[in-house]
Amino acid sequence: MQIIKTHNLSKFYNKGKFKALDNLNIEIEKNTIFGFLGPNGAGKTTTLKLLTGLIKPSNGEIWINNSLINKDNFINNNIGYLSQNPKYYDWMSAYELLTFVGKLFNFSKKDASIRADELIELCGINDYKNRKIRTYSGGMVQRVGIAQALFNKPDVLFLDEPVSDMDPLGRKEILDFIKILKKDTTVFMSSHILEDVERVCDSIAIINKGHLIKVSDTQELKNEFTKKAGTIEIKLSSNKDLNKCKAWINDYISNKYSINDLKIVIGEKYFKYYKNDFFKMVGNSSINIESYKIIKPSLEDIFVSIIGEDNYEKSVN
Amino acid sequence: MRKVLTNLLYKDLLDSWRNYKVLIIVITFLFFGLISPLSAYFMPQLLNMIGSDQGVLIEINTPTQMDSYLQFHKNISQIALLIMIFLFMGNVSNEKESGSVDFLLVKPIKSSFYIISKFISLLILAFFAMLISTITCGFYTFFLFKTLVISDLLRMSFYLYFYIITILSITILFSSLVKKQFVAGIFTFLTWIIIQSLSSFSFLRTFLPTRVLNEAHLAAVGMSSNIYSIINSIIMILICLIIAIYGFKKQRDSL
User: What is the pTM of this model?
Assistant: First the structure.
């Protein structure tokens, strides 16, 4: 079942001259983690602000939980939102902030306190729950942000760069925590840390300059690109071996390779037809190969490749 | 919905408490409650001292409790109010600038509640500030002048209160419309000056929200005052709040 659906969602500025988001059409399944990827200025935060009702669309529709969202019916009982670089009332403690949020959601004083304690425990902020937020580090504020976003047990949780300010250990903890959340919640998460998206997201969308370029299941996207975009790394034992190898490769693949130290790195798609010939040549000429590796593309490689192609197409057009 | 407004109000009052705004207001209003009767009482002696040093004889009528009220009227409507504007000019704009307003507005809260809560918190703070300073002024006036016309003092404070909250509603208006607190402060100050300048034209005075200030003056000197003058202030407050809410919403829609 789809929990978020957008139809031609757009946001224009400067009387339509600047399109921050142009005709975004996405459908997100319930109880999944959806990663929203894009370079800086791609339109990620604009999309999140539109979906959370913080800004109004210039065009298009948003459906959350089968309800059409517009400015008249946007009462945010069923969503949670963690903004990028969140700022809270820094003169409050985490406990005070969370109980205040609870009261805004109409919790009784007792229930707000119980839920606040539950979230404080869950987000690992127990040790400093009574300290003023102004004394917290970036990572601690981020945890408080996640706790406040989860307070109302939302159907959809929107996270804008949720782990960007955290150290590796904190990042791992929060990402593991986000993974658990999908049992009860659908998570829509923007990030520029591709490794994090790869680790937790079931499906991803890639956006560039306000346009949606790709939406896919994370694994499917990787499989698709692995087929056409792997690299082969051949490490030779000496410069002599490297030169012999280079001479052969030059004949077949011309200049579509790179040399780094004693390593030759070739795109798999250029090499796969000549692989057998290459090994025959290696056998005949007794070239010493230290290692031969096929490196599958990471999500980062895929991302760079997709964005690169998109930028190229836009510049040509 | 009333519960949400109460919670917002509690948060705004706690904000003023934690950030020492309450303390500053209490000290300011207490100070003027004390200093106004004192300065009125000792003014002739002070002037005589200065005059006799220079060989000039200054004749001043013996001050009465009325002089104490007038001094209080002047201090509260000028310096104390300026301090309040300074303290609250970032009431909305600071939260917009820091982004903490986004955290609130993704909760089930209407923009109007957000602005109204800010205004009500100022109403409450101004009320207690006026209460403290009026009691102090009354006490000291009686102590020094041995007479106290409570009804005049209360009437004057009542009108002064309306004057203060009218100017504070202008502060809320500009704080909602602009993003920088000092810009909100400058606009409020300029509007305040313009209104005061316009009130020097007698034909305009009746229609201006500052009419209550004249009524406060009349009350201070024991003359009868017109209770309907507060209607001007109420209209001005409502206009400011409506524009503030509309402007705040519009601003967010255009983001």
Answer: 0.80
**A276: number of Cβ within 10 Å:** 9
What's chain B's Rg over C-alpha atoms?
20
Does the beta-carbon distance from B106 to A81 stay under 8 Å? Answer: yes
The residue type of A114 is: I
With tokens 């190229």, the residue in question is A312
Question: Is A106's CB within 8 Å of B99's CB?
Answer: no
- E strands of B40-100, at which residues? none
Interface touch A87/B100, C-beta < 8 Å: yes
Contact partners, residue A185, CB within 8 Å, separation at least 6: A31, A80, A150, A153, A154, A155, A156, A157
* Cβ neighbours around A32 below 10 Å, total: 17
Q: How far apart are CA B68 and CA B36, in angstroms?
A: 6
Nearest to B106 among A52, A71, A88 (CB): A52
Task: Using an 8 Å CB-CB cutoff, list chain B residues near A81.
Answer: 102-103, 106
Select the residue of A52, A87, A105 nearest B99 (Cβ to Cβ): A87
Q: Are A94 and A129 in contact (CB under 8 A)?
A: yes
Give per-residue pLDDT as tens, B176-199.
999 888 999 999 999 989 988 888
Question: pLDDT, tens digit, for every residue of B83-121?
Answer: 999 999 998 999 988 888 888 888 888 889 999 999 999
Query: Residue A91 and residue B15: Cβ atoms within 8 Å?
Result: yes
